[in-house]
Amino acid sequence: MCRRISLATYLVFAGWFSVSMATGNPLEISVQVQEQVLADETFPVFVTANALVSVELEYGDDIKKVTAHDSRTLFSGQPGLQNLTVTARDNAGNTVIEIREINAIRAQKVEIHVADSIYRGDPYVIRLSWEGLGDQDAWVEAVQILAGDQELPVFVSGTSGYAFGSIDLVSDNRVISFTGRIVDEFREERTVEKTVRILEYAHPVLNLEFGSGNLNSLDLKERVIEESRLRKDYGDGRIDRLWQSSFRVPVIGPITGAFGQGRRYPGLPEIYPHSGVDIAAKTGTEILATNSGVVVETGFFSIRGGVVVIDHGAGLSSIYCHQSRMLVETGDWVNRGQVIGYVGSTGLSTGPHLHWEVRLRGVPMNPFRWLELDVEH
Questions:
Q1: Cα 6 → chain centroid
Q2: 136: helix, coil or strand?
Q3: Which domains does the chain have, with CATH numbers?
Q4: Is residue 125 within 8 Å of 178, Cβ to Cβ?
């Protein structure tokens, strides 16, 4: 806000009256200053005059003087709304006063919140928080969260931002570094970092045995085709979250195959980590959608048998395998708890059960750990 007044008017405001006796050309000045600055940070005030002038600049409790045609004076932002009064006088006695209102707002301070350690294969939530959005706080214009060098999709709500991630089962890193970054309206960047330890679950290797009919499902070519077809369905398409409440278990029953457990298949030297959990149940038991979303794949596969894949948005997908019958089709919207199929023993299976996976941007993670996270907001 800018108000230019003559000295006579200024003195009237102050309770005095004066008649200027100055002669010569009228004195003109130009004051350039940002009306919104950062508190405790320096900002410049530029004064340009059409004559040599003595300038007094009063800002809050700070007064500075300079004599020049053109001047640049630095002040430190004083929190809140303060007047900047610029009084210029030339040698002929002409005086011009300009008053500006300067709003000095606080720069945002950012904090990072994530567990001190994470087990390999487990999901996590990383949160950034900053100060309130009051009149004296800088607005946050951009929020970024990185896990290592991978940028994670960020969801902003009020004065915080959060992202989901998981530690890949096949990675060999012992630590992971998280970086949080915000940029405010002044293009000021605030960065915070935290390094987290990666822990290991102790799982004995399981040597699997199958009947001769099931061994045909281990054909390497079939396995590659199956993985390639399903990979495109693992939740890369929708950025927005499609769920509004907590996640649930799709089937109740004993756990017969732990997540991350090493498995050795007949005739194959490699050990494969289990990408989901196996829940034993009778054939025909109802399978419920773990949360709302869109069905992106249904069909029968050599290894996974009857499969349904649900995209929950935000890079998250859930996979339900070995079904005897599916009740949904690709493109269907499903609600949390909706029956999507029935337990079976199709594909590469030793008995009726549900193989249940939860993947984040294609990376499998422990489904039961995902249920424990606060992912509703």
A1: 53
A2: coil
A3: 29-105 (2.60.40.730), 110-199 (2.60.40.10), 205-372 (2.70.70.10)
A4: no
Res 210: pLDDT: 56
How far is it, in rounded angstroms, from Cα 369 to Cα 357? 12
- The Cα 82–Cα 105 span in angstroms is 11
Global pTM value: 0.70
List, for the chain, all residue ranges whose pLDDT scores fall below the cut of 50: 1-22, 133
3 state SS of 143? strand
In this predicted structure, what is the pLDDT of residue 263?
64
> Cβ–Cβ contacts within 10 Å for residue 266, how many?
11
Instruction: Give me the pLDDT at residue 283, please.
Output: 97
> So what's the pLDDT on residue 201?
79
What count of other Cβ atoms lies within 10 Å of the Cβ of residue 238? 17
Task: Identify the burial level of 216 via C-beta atoms within 10 angstroms of its C-beta, where 0-12 means exposed, 13-18 middle and 19 or more buried.
Answer: exposed
pLDDT for 205: 62
pLDDT recorded at residue 101: 94
CA distance linking residue 286 with residue 247, whole number of Å: 17
Distance CA 193, CA 216 (A): 50
